Amino acid sequence: MRYGVISDIHANLEALEAVFDELQKAKVDEIICLGDIVGYGPDPEKCVELVRKHCKFSLAGNHDHALLGLIDTRFFNQYAKKSVEWTKVQLSKTSTEYLHSLPLIEKIENFTIVHASPARPETWNYILSIDDAADNFTYIQGVCCFVGHSHVPIILERNNDNKVVIKRENNLELDQDKQYIINIGSVGQPRDLDPRAAYAIFNSEVYRFDLQRVRYDMSKTQKKIIERGLPAYLAERLSSGQ
Ligand code: ZN
User: Fold this and answer.
1) For 44, 73, 225, 227, which has the most beta carbons within 10 A of its beta carbon?
2) CB 117, CB 73: distance < 8 Å
3) Which of 239, 177, 174 is nearest to 200 (CA)?
């Protein structure tokens, strides 16, 4: 099977549509979403509708849970908090129920998917380094775990001696004797200084991973952020990819 893998859409419709177009052209068999469909961006309802329609598997992220009142937003930054409040009144009952129905972690074929970390999905820990990754590998079923949450793509590989290394490649043939935690970056709010939407394609038969980027009509998204009264910073950060 060839899977399209997406994460952290953050209500950015233009980025999501551009990614779905690319995945359609690439003729993937199924699309998987790792969560944070909403929050920050101006089109939460349309993005939830599209994910429902196109994604065979979908997970909940911390922003989805914040919106549902399932987590405390005390530690959210001011922009995230404001967008959670704004998003709450934008979503239809159907979309809210859909977000409620999403699991935190899932095993598919020979890999695992989770929004934040496989060890403790509900604590929303970030995996940004070799140290962060270390105790997470034991919780992975299969050869790899796809994660989102940090909006920064990274591949962490654990070899047979339990040593974890960072791989810089965007394209990788996974070694079935090793294990991987792979952050696929963000569709709607990349933070690795590359403002293009990020997504991945994984071929589960030959263990081939490809990270992809695509440009989208960012100025349209930015205009909507301002028009809808969301913080201007949320529009600005899209340009710099951080
Ligand atoms: Zn996110």
Assistant:
1) 44
2) no
3) 174
Domains of the chain: 2-240 (3.60.21.10)
Distance CA 13, CA 220 (A): 10
pTM of the model: 0.96
Distance 150 CA to ligand 1 centre (A): 7
| Ligand 1 mean position, distance from CA 80 (Å) | 10
pLDDT digits (tens, 9 = 90+) for 193-214: 999 999 999 999 999 999 999 9
Summarised one tens digit per residue, pLDDT across range 112-134 is 999 999 999 999 999 999 999 98
Dihedral of CA 136/137/138/142: which sign? positive
177 CA distance to ligand 1 centroid (A)?
31
Contact 83, 113 (CB under 8 A): no
User: What is the Å distance from ligand 1's center to 189 Cα?
Assistant: 8
Counting beta carbons within 10 angstroms of the beta carbon of residue 120, is it exposed (0 to 12), middle (13 to 18) or buried (19 or more)? middle
